Fold this protein.
Amino acid sequence: VIHYTIPLHLDKHTYPIYVGQHIFASTELLARHIRGKQVCIITQEKIAALYLQPLLRALQGYQCAVFSLPDGEQYKNLDEWRKILDLLLQQGHERSTTLIALGGGVVGDITGFAAACYQRGVNYIQIPTTLIAQVDAAIGGKTAVNHSHGKNMIGAFHQPQCVIADVNLLQTLPAREYIAGLAEVIKYGLIDDAMFFGWLEMNRDALLAKKTDALLHVMHVCVSMKARIVSEDERDLGRRNLLNFGHSFGHALEALGQYQRFLHGEAVAIGMAMAATLSGDLGLIPVATVQRIVNLLQSFGFVLNDSLPTSAELIQLMRRDKKMQLGKMNLILLSGLGRAEKVSTVSESQIEQMLQKFSSYK
Ligand SMILES: NC(=O)c1ccc[n+]([C@@H]2O[C@H](COP(=O)([O-])OP(=O)(O)OC[C@H]3O[C@@H](n4cnc5c(N)ncnc54)[C@H](O)[C@@H]3O)[C@@H](O)[C@H]2O)c1
């Protein structure tokens, strides 16, 4: 059943994001968005074991190749990307082929980038299987692979033909991955929707239990918001920046943990608490609001201050980030619950102060 179809409007290309249950292997839905007779599914072994067979059955009428990526962020790289292109060439895929990403953000990002480059650009479909991918990564056409010099350093904007977000797929997602994805869900409430933030406070148990109704509500709010923000600023030159709330601190924490210690969402959760604390320190939001945000994150199980880096370590990493200019940082902060803005006047000593306060959170 398709519960919602949310359009993503762009100048040259509008595409649907289908949200529902038991829809990822619908022949009819897929056929609407496949142009030729050839398809190539890109996935990972663990996901293939769960979901590849139904998808292959749905694609019986097509010449279908399958590429399985090893599990892990480190495989979102140029070597694997090249193997995808090799396979397409070996199997004689033409410009009318359609790539299908069946997986989380890693699979979606590398598939999108392969689609952007193969024969100067072919169609692709996103079937996101993680919460992060369903509410965020699969939507908006940012595609990339990592380089030893940095995450997502090589990529392209390339929009899919459609996104098929089937909430049933989330039932098999490991708890830690699922909860990490909830950080991005909470982010949408913080930056743009105070009512949704209130809803999250009330519906924590249903969400942690992956109740379908709760998931469908989350998907509706988050997908609509992401689609709206992307359609206003496809190339991330303005408003789309707000989606980076919590990410400057989060990226630094991920790097400090050598991408092993934190999942992306876990680092973003801490980063959002830091950004909220800083917003409070600067008088942009009341202290009571900061506390409410910290409480919500902790109630979802995020550990905010377990042996944090020193401010010197954190600042050094953030300095390397492109958001730093003349000793001042560009950060996305909150000017209210459900209201974010870019602030370019944050000094290093303000970040130091924030970290001191932060270490007192229990
Ligand atoms: N393009 C964008 O706009 C954008 C936005 C946010 C994040 N990202 C990227 O997304 C990536 C992170 O994505 P992710 O969090 O989805 O990680 P991921 O793709 O690594 O998936 C996490 C783990 O869950 C497993 N898995 C996936 N779906 C499953 C399912 N239904 N059942 C059981 N196991 C399942 C995967 O095999 C993997 O082990 C990063 O590379 C990040 O840069 C991109």
Summary: The mean pLDDT is 95. The two ends are 43 Å apart (CA to CA).
